[in-house]
Amino acid sequence: MALQWIRSLIFKIVMYAWMAVLGILFSPYALLSKNGALRACKLYARSVIWMARWMVGLHGEVRGEVPTGEVVIAAKHQSFFDIILIFDAVPRAKFIMKRELLWTPFIGLYAKRLGCIPVDRGKKGAAVAKMVKDVAAEFSEPGQLVIYPQGTRVAPGVHKKYKVGTAILYEGLEYPCVPAATNVGVFWPRTGVLRKPGTATVEFLPTIAPGTGRDTFMSALEQAIESRSNALMHEVGFDPNDAR
């Protein structure tokens, strides 16, 4: 375990150092072209997936039909690695993200150029209204909008309420919603250094068509994501009930 922790530490240092290198090298291209920002971030995502496999023995797997059109992807969020796997899989992801990340070196610049939507989580109703307005403005260009219905990273086995903002976006945009489940947190926890070897999976689930009533939509979304995420965790030997 000590050796794996050391390997994980080296991986973490290299991963963030590579982010800085790519961020600097691609910044002129990213400032001039949104496609430049997209290419830089795609390269980074693929690099992290490759480094995770060879440095700590963590493989990334994507299952299900990958959404390519204009959709809302409502995803389970357990750690940074599920962001990487989704971003690498879909053509043009745009994330709903907390506003503080705009001030993070490199991440803020590239998030703006990708069309990510910052949200002030402390303002609740006002934040949701502004989010809907900002999303409508940003979707003059096609893409896949990724939102985390629980609003933050949630450790495996921990229950956190699903927020209504996902339903409001789904209703307002009138786009299909693709739920996404994951077991990533079993191998790459939300905090700490240790990364465990194995296969971390993100799975895109059957689409919820536009027009479903809000209560029915929220119930179906939570049931789909939670049941499949629990099944994916069971596959790799983790019982979510043991964490409660």
Instruction: Using the coordinates shown, work out and report the CATH topology.
Output: Glycerol-3-phosphate (1)-acyltransferase
Level-1 CATH class name: Alpha Beta
Domain tally = 1
Structural class: alpha/beta
Distance between the termini: 25 Å
Folded structure, characterized:
By secondary structure, this protein is α/β, with parallel strands linked by helices. Helix content is about 50%, strand content about 15%. It has helices at about 1-30, 35-55, 80-90, 105-115, 125-140, 165-175, 215-235, and strands spanning about 60-65, 70-75, 95-100, 115-120, 145, 175-180, 200-205. It has a seven-stranded mixed β-sheet with strand order 1-7-6-2-5-3-4, with helices on both faces. Helix 4 links the parallel strand 3 (about 95-100) and strand 4. Helix 5 packs parallel to helix 6. The mean pLDDT is about 90.
Layout: helices, strands, pairs:
Elements (H helix, E strand, L loop, with lengths): L1 H31 L1 H23 L1 E6 L7 E5 L4 H10 L3 E6 L8 H8 L2 E3 L5 H14 L5 E4 L17 H9 L3 E6 L15 E7 L9 H22 L9
Parallel strand pairs: 1-7, 2-5, 2-6, 3-4, 3-5
Antiparallel strand pairs: 6-7
Which structural traits does this protein have?
244 residues; alpha/beta; Glycerol-3-phosphate (1)-acyltransferase; seven-stranded mixed sheet; 7 strands; 48% helix; 15% strand
